Amino acid sequence: MLSAYVDGCCAPISPGGTASYGVVVFKDSEKLWQDSGIVGSGDKMSNNVSEYQALYKLFEWLDKQPVEDITIYSDSQLLVNQMSRKWKVKSGLYLPYYEQCVIWMMQNIDLWGDRIKFDWIPREMNLEADELSKKELLKRCIEVRW
Fold first, then answer.
1. Residue 48 burial by CB count (10 A; 0-12/13-18/19+): exposed, middle or buried?
2. What residue ranges define each of the domains in the chain, with the CATH number in brackets?
3. What is the pLDDT along the chain (146 residues), one digit of tens a residue?
4. Distance (Å, rounded) from C-alpha 68 to C-alpha 13?
5. Residues 53/60, Cβ–Cβ less than 8 Å
6. What is the pLDDT of residue 22?
7. Displacement of CA 137 from its chain's centroid (Å)
8. Would you list the DSSP string of the chain?
9. Which residues contact residue 79 at a Cβ distance below 8 angstroms, ignoring those fewer than 6 apart?
10. Integer CA distances (angstroms), 129 to 1, 2, 58, 72, 125, in order
């Protein structure tokens, strides 16, 4: 069984800052994959945008993997509850990113449908994905300064 941790941040303000994401995947205690990156900067960026981008990057990785059970952990109650269909989606900057994730789920329902579980965790249990997303912001700050 796989365990994936997704996280995102947007700084120095959300919305309106620079959004970044981090993703880490484990099988038992072995780290299989990690990824991080910048989503973008400006008034269309937010913490929720970056959380959903992290999830979509995980889905892209899953496209190249053998199918097995996976629990996706996030400290975003919005992401976990929307993707688990407990909360409705109204509107927000994240809407296109959410839709991208839902389309992936629908296109892969036969393969992954019953195998993906979403689980909320407190922020302090999501440190590695959080750290990856923040390192991306730090790299961006260094690039801008130089």
1. buried
2. 2-145 (3.30.420.10)
3. 999 999 999 999 999 999 999 999 999 999 999 999 999 999 999 999 999 999 999 999 999 999 999 999 999 999 999 999 999 998 899 999 999 999 999 999 888 888 999 999 999 999 999 999 999 888 776 665 54
4. 38
5. no
6. 98
7. 15
8. -EEEEEEEEEESSTTTSEEEEEEEEEETTEEEEEEEEEEEESTT--HHHHHHHHHHHHHHHHTTS----EEEEES-HHHHHHHTTSS-----TTHHHHHHHHHHHHHTHHHHTTTEEEEE--GGG-HHHHHHHHHHHHHHHHHHH-
9. 6, 48, 51, 52, 55, 118
10. 19, 15, 12, 12, 10
